[in-house]
Structure formats: structure tokens, C-alpha cells
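quick one
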Amino acid sequence: MIEIKNVSKTFNQRTGGTFTAIDNVSLSIKKGEFLSLLGPSGCGKSTLLNLVAGLEHAQQGTITVNGKPCNTPGPDRVVVFQEHALFPWLTVLDNVAFGLKQKGIPKKQREEMALEQIKSVHLSRFADRYPHELSGGMKQRAAIARALAMDPEILLMDEPFAALDEQTRLILHKELEEIWMRTKKTILFITHNIREAVILSDRVLVMSTRPGTIKKEFNVQAARP
Ligand code: ADP
Ligand code: ADP
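structure w/ adenosine-5'-diphosphate:
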């Protein structure tokens, strides 16, 4: 469903010249697949995710979702970022309902839809709280609920659990796995944590420290119970 073909992305440097962040990468992601992109900081993971999200543009190559080019953000792809994802001036309910409001869904209906997603991430008791009243794990649950409320085909997750303590992270792994099983979303998940990649994914792509190339690929599904 996601086809990335011979994609290269360079950035102009402040000092002049260009920097290649993604160098001729090709890959396909199947519908319903949970794919992790693993690699050290600076290897180009976020850049690749932002290209799929339509937030960045490649100088070379093509990226399509269901055959359609994705050079602008679309309702079929929603990003969950590491942090700062929620509007601090809105409650959890209003944060989760925000995108539905943009879509023009009437208030009563969008609040019902938002509350359903809030329930699915076990935050019902906190629907009326503001982000600063929540723990890190709860904020990420709310960000996931907000993404799910838009019912995208694809969830793009950029190190969503990297800022959390180990115990919270393990709980959220279980919850994300449940969400994936239940919703059958296609998930592109970025991490620099190999355990996280192996625990969560069907398939792991390892990006090289030399920016922008995929070095290895392995399936983990077969190895899981
Ligand atoms: P990762 O997500 O693997 O940590 P990034 O995709 O964020 O890596 O970055 C890859 C490389 O591209 C890094 O060296 C980073 O500094 C550079 N880069 C990312 N975004 C920009 C930008 N907007 N302008 C210039 N360089 C950038
Ligand atoms: P992460 O490591 O979480 O991927 P970064 O700290 O690399 O995030 O990047 C944060 C933001 O800054 C991103 O939007 C990225 O595109 C941008 N960025 C990263 N490196 C550079 C750079 N050298 N010049 C300009 N913008 C950059």
C-alpha cells in the first residue's frame, strides 16, 4: 500500500552545500503491516517518515499510498510524534475531537467519537483534563487516541515512546499491540531501540549510520509466539 521508490532527500546546509539525509531508498509496506524503522539518531528515520507524511518533499523518486502520490499531508496518514503533540490549551476531549471538528463533524457526534477513542486508550477518567495534568504516558495515549479518531489507514509513529520511562513504555507497547490487532492499521514506527522494534513489529528495517540508506531487513513475526 505504501510504495517508496528510489527516494533521495537532501537538505541545504546553513554553511552552504547540501546534505543527503535519504539516499536512494526503496521499500514497500503492505496493508496492515507493522513496520519498524530502526537506526541511530541522525540516520534519516524522521526524514523518511516526514516524506511519507507529506511534510517533506523528496528531490528524487516517488512515494505513493494506494497508487496516489503523497506529497501533501492527507487524512489517510496521521503522525504521532514523540512529544509536544497535544494543544496545551485544550482538554483531552477537545484535543482528540480537534481533527473531527476540522472535518465539520457536529459537536455531539464528534464528542461521542472522541470519547470512544479516549476509552480505547483507557483515559476516560481524564477526558476533561488538560495536557499538563497528565503523565507522559497519558499524553502519548491521548495523542494516539487523537490519531485514531481520524480513522487513518496509516499511523506514522515517530519515536512515540522514547521520552517515557521503561515501565510506562512496556505498558504502552502492550496497548499499541492491542490497538494494532483490533484496528488492523498499517503502522510505520520509528525507533532507535532494537528491543522495541522487535517486540512490536512484523518487520524491521535497519537504517545505516551513514545517513539515509537501509542496511538490513528482518522479519520478526515468524519468531514470535
Ligand atoms: P533521525 O530521525 O534518524 O534521527 P533525521 O531524519 O531527523 O534522523 O535527520 C537525518 C539527518 O538529516 C540529520 O543529520 C539531520 O541533522 C538532517 N536534517 C533533518 N532535517 C533537516 C532540515 N530540515 N535541514 C537540514 N538538515 C536536516
Ligand atoms: P529527532 O532526532 O527526534 O528526529 P531532530 O532533533 O533531529 O529530531 O530534529 C528536530 C527537527 O529539527 C526536525 O523537524 C528536523 O527536520 C529539524 N532539523 C534537524 N536537523 C536540522 C538541521 N541540521 N537544520 C535544520 N533543521 C533540522
